[in-house]
Automatic annotation (TrEMBL):
PROSITE patterns: HTH_ARAC_FAMILY_2 (PS01124). Pfam families: HTH_18, PBP1_XylR, Peripla_BP_3. This is Substrate-binding domain-containing protein. Transmembrane segments: none annotated. Gene3D superfamilies: 3.40.50.2300, Homeodomain-like. CDD domains: PBP1_XylR. Residues 287-385 form the HTH araC/xylS-type domain. One of its GO terms (molecular function) is DNA-binding transcription factor activity.
Length: 408
């Protein structure tokens, strides 16, 4: 069997690119195709000299205009991957193109915020630039959806990420957040952008998700780990894009002419976490207390520390919680610790003891008792069931799911 030399031109520091590459790998493992893959050692995309590369095919990220320009006249088969466009002229000519459906990404996020009970909406985007065309397409989708409902879209692009401008960028984000009508649902064009805004909310003392419900796009585990409040996110379906792109290139390598074929891949669903679980508490003390608990529950905080943060007596805070939530402050702290533990256990990456420690339980035995009382099973049994469920999804036919709800 002939082996083909294939270049993957992506920047794998981005979760989207990594997921596309994972999809290519999944295609290769499920077929008899024999590919020798070329990627830079540090998984960075470098174009200089690519025109002299002696290979058989290329799969590349065409969201980067420099890549699109460099490969537009390639003599070897190329499959492009990138974002969808409302204007057909923005697609490359005569090159197969696999796109994430930007409109459906934003619509799914917008519908989720509506279901959460929000009536005001905004978007946190990126500065206008050729390399951010995909972000501007998501802005267009957002405008279309809001104007259809006769609403004025609030879109803020802010500054690009750089060390010298970081303080100014955060100050401007906080100023924009304060200017928005509350409560508000905000769609960020990426999880990285959502993480920045979540930090700005925490610095400004803006309660998430009571005043600001925030959702990102990418379902990036690294962004999730770097936020104190678990971040809801739209899952793009980038792995399916990689599988599709690899399948198209495989056909081209065997003589099939695909020309300007375009395939739009819809989002997989939403990983719903704390940042969009919007509720409208009746009392501001309860809202402020829950905001503090979300950030620090897993650090072993006690009821008196929550009361000190809110600025009222412990007995008064307990009274407000009983009136509004029909439970104690301790119950809410424990619930957040349990939610954090179930999320980590479901990923199957850490030991039970490590999960107990990181989620603020005083011992493995105490976490075991809480799981038995609240969920009717042990942490180990919970983890085993979650892992079996994930294995079942992996063995399925790859159909999109509408939502991925937190178990707890």
């Amino acid at each position: 069997m002939k082996s083909h030399r294939i270049a993957l031109l992506f920047n794998a520091n981005k979760i989207f690119d990594r997921e596309v590459i994972s999809g290519v790998a999944a295609h290769l493992s499920s077929t008899r195709a024999s590919w020798d893959l070329f990627l830079e050692e540090d998984f960075r995309l470098r174009l200089p000299g690519i025109e002299h590369w002696q290979g058989d095919g290329i799969i590349a990220d065409f969201d980067d205009p420099a890549v699109a320009a460099a490969l537009s006249r390639s003599r070897i088969p190329v499959v492009a991957v990138g974002g969808s466009y409302a204007d057909e002229s923005n697609y490359p000519e005569s090159i197969p193109y696999v796109a994430t459906d930007n409109f459906k990404l934003i619509k799914l996020a917008h519908d989720h915020l509506i279901e959460a009970g929000l009536r005001n909406f905004a978007m946190f985007s990126l500065p206008e630039a050729q390399e951010n065309r995909w972000a501007q397409e998501r802005e267009t989708a957002f405008r279309t959806l809001l104007r259809k409902d006769m609403m004025e879209p609030h879109i803020y692009r802010g500054l690009g990420t750089s060390a010298p401008s970081w303080d100014e960028a955060v100050e401007q984000q906080i100023k924009w957040l304060h200017s928005l009508p509350k409560p508000v649902g905000i769609i960020a064009v990426t999880d990285a952008r959502a993480r920045q805004l979540l930090q700005a909310c925490i610095m400004a003392g803006i309660e998430v998700p009571e005043q600001v419900a925030l959702i990102g796009i990418d379902n990036d585990p690294l962004a999730r780990m770097l936020t104190r409040i678990p971040l809801s996110s739209v899952m793009q379906g980038a792995q399916e894009m990689g599988r599709t792109a690899a399948h198209l290139l495989d056909q081209m390598l065997h003589g099939v002419r695909l020309g300007g074929t375009r395939i739009l891949v819809p989002p997989v669903g939403i990983n719903v976490l704390t940042s969009t679980r919007h509720e409208a508490p009746k009392h501001p003390h309860v809202m402020r207390a829950r905001h503090f608990i979300r950030q620090y529950a897993c650090q072993g905080i006690k009821t008196h520390q929550v009361a000190e943060y809110v600025g009222i007596s412990r007995s008064s805070l307990e009274s407000y919680f009983r009136q509004e939530l029909d439970c104690s402050v301790h119950d809410v702290i424990l619930r957040f610790k349990l939610d954090a533990a179930t999320e980590i256990l479901a990923r199957g990456e850490r030991s039970i003891a490590d999960v107990a420690l990181s989620c603020g339980f005083t011992s493995v035995q105490y976490m075991h008792a809480v799981f038995k009382r609240e969920l009717g099973c042990t942490p180990r049994a919970y983890q085993d069931r979650a892992m079996q469920g994930r294995a079942g999804e992996a063995d399925g036919d790859g159909a999109a799911v509408a939502d991925l709800r937190s178990v707890a």
